[in-house]
Structure formats: structure tokens, C-alpha cells
Amino acid sequence: MYRVCFVCTGNICRSPMAESVFRAHVERVGLDALVEVDSAGTGGWHEGDGADPRTVSVLEAAGYAQDHRARQFRSSWFSRLDLVIALDAGHLRDLRALAPTPQDAAKVRLLRSYDPAATAGQYDVPDPYYGPIDGFEECLELIEAAGPGLLDAVREAMKEHTA
User: C-alpha 22: how far from its chain's center?
Assistant: First the structure.
């Protein structure tokens, strides 16, 4: 099993959205029995809560399923994860600092680094929490744009993992 965890701040907006989108990609290509997808937050403020209603609305309008409960990322999870996907540079920094080993820190990547249209300095998915619904729609567009590249990277890593 190849395990991917998406991480944002509170685990109610960006990371559950990325989790739902990537899970749909994985299911579409028939890898759902081989790839486990989940999400977490760098903080525990919303632990146990569902996704933000605006996240749910945008996902449902785009045809994505979601069943989410927020949780906080734990350092101990690195040992069972293959890839930890940060939604912005602050998450990347926090997660790498939390990693118990250099090998674990190397598992942390920025989501938009998998989007061929994104350039260095444009890898953050902006936090839509304090804004209107169109920020959530933009968030979904950025996540969707990175999905195919991330899926290709996971497929390649899985080949190396089994070789």
C-alpha cells in the first residue's frame, strides 16, 4: 500500500479538498486498492469537525465525494507514510521540522510542484478560509491542476517501491 497524506493548517479547507480530488483520480485509474489517501492539519483547532461547508459545497458542485473529520498531523505518522503533501510553504516548513529523520523530511512536497503550469514562487495554494466562496473555487482549480502530475509521480514511486 502506498500512503499519501495532504496537510494544510486546520484540515477543514484545502487538505480535505485535495484528499477528495486525489482519491477520485486514484479511483478513476483503478489504483484505489493500492493507494491510501488521507489528510490532516498542522494544528488541532478543528479536530473532529467536518470540512468547512464551503469546501463541501465546492466539492459537491464539482462531483467529488467527501466524508471528512479533521485531525492533527503527528510526527509518528511519518513512518507509515510514503508521501506528505503540503498545501503551502509554511506547511512544508512545519512538516519538515516535525520530521524525525532526514528521510522523513524528504517525503514532504508541495502540491503545486506537481502542476506543470506553476512556477517557483507560485507553489502555494492560498488559504480560502477568511474569504468568499470564489476562493474555495480557485483552491479547487489549483488542486485539480496538480492532480495528474501527482498521480504520475505516485505511479512512478510505486514502480520503484516494488522493483
Answer: 8
Asked if 18 contacts 102 with a C-beta cutoff of 8 angstroms, the reply is no
Backbone angles phi, psi at 86, to 5 degrees: -85, 145
Per-residue pLDDT tens for 7-52?
999 999 999 999 999 999 999 999 999 999 999 999 988 999 999 9
The pTM of the full predicted model, rounded to 2 decimals, is: 0.97
**Choice among 5, 13, 14, 124 that is catalytic:** 14
Show Cβ contacts of residue 30 under 8 Å, excluding neighbours closer than 6 positions. Answer: none
CB 4 within 8 A of CB 82: yes
Nearest-angstrom CA–CA distance, 77 and 11: 16
Q: In which residue are the cell numbers 458542485 written? A: 61
Please indicate whether residue 127 is annotated as part of the active site: yes
Q: Which of 32, 49, 82, 127 is catalytic?
A: 127
User: Does residue 90 contact residue 120 with C-beta atoms inside 8 Å?
Assistant: no
Q: Is 8 a catalytic residue?
A: yes
Q: Is residue 11 classed exposed, middle or buried when 0-12, 13-18 and 19+ CB atoms within 10 A define those classes?
A: buried
